[in-house]
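Researcher: Let's walk through a ligand-bound prediction step by step. First, I give you the protein sequence. Second, the SMILES string for zinc ion. Third, you return the three-dimensional complex as structure tokens. Ready?
Model: Ready.
Researcher: Here are steps one and two:
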Amino acid sequence: MPIDAGSPQAVAAADDVLTELADAVDAMPEAADFTALDTPRRLLLVHAHPDDETVGTGATIAVEAARGTAVTLVTCTLGERGAVVAPDLAHLGWEQDDTLGEHRVGELAESCRILGIGDHRFLGGPGRWRDSDMMGNPGNDDRRCFWQADQAETTAALVEVIREVRPQVAATYDANGAYGHPDHIQAHRVTEAAVTAAADASYRPDLGEPWSVTKLYWTAIPRSVLQQALDTAKASGEASIFGDAETVDDLGMGTPDELVTTAVDGRAHFDTKIAAMLAHRSQIGDGGPFKPMMDGLGDRGFGIEHYTLSRGVRGPGEGEHGWEADLFAGIEL
Ligand SMILES: [Zn+2]
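Model: Step three, the predicted complex:
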């Protein structure tokens, strides 16, 4: 049956959910006394779902937080359609109770606490846009989903955040959303549009003073690293996030090594990253499908995070690839 989000009952129910969520978010201690502009070094991450902040950028966040950087995380949906891997939480899924989104607000709050994220927002407020599920699934047709969001509204929502916290550096996914998920693709599009609009003095002056982000990054997993992870998972003989794939070509993801510009070494914060991942128990359980990879690759595979600089001037590099080691490389603060 098509979902009629416009019916009075649906709107009333959605309002209740939003009120509950707003209360839950208000209770997050980090949200209360945060002033980004008090710190000179400011980083903005735009992610699609709760847990995305950990897998691709958790070590970077921990590195920056430990350095005193003001880290702002914007999450675009509550991840309502995520696959629940913890059996005792299976009833929360959208096909049963459909309360996974609310549950994940709590998981995300714990992850933010572990990683040291001082400022977390849901784009447009909690529950404004709903998880769209994987490409081609019925969730894509739900009018409330992020994939169907109005571009003018999403852009304005993110511009408001950018102009408020004034990050020198922002990061999101590449144009394929790293692996083709509609919400990740949309997060990319929204971030690109908002970074441009935020710097344009003629765009919505009511949303604050213009701010120009100095460097914009896309998260990246070098194909060589991905192949190594795949080989490790295969060798373990256990089920993994890679399914039946034999090579990187079968996965439809991974960044050619030559397009990678930056590698942040967060191995010293490896345990923090893993703890933050495990805070998302509905999605990750006890590590489940990530475990062969985590065990096999250890802190190197999961502790070093890669990026492609998409806007701004590349800073000085180091090591055999000449990669930047720091997202703020070359920026005068
Ligand atoms: Zn995601």
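Researcher: And what stands out?
Model: The pocket of zinc ion is lined by residues 48-49, 52, 181, 184 (CB under 6 Å). Residues 10-221+258-311 form a domain with the Rossmann fold fold (CATH 3.40.50.10320).
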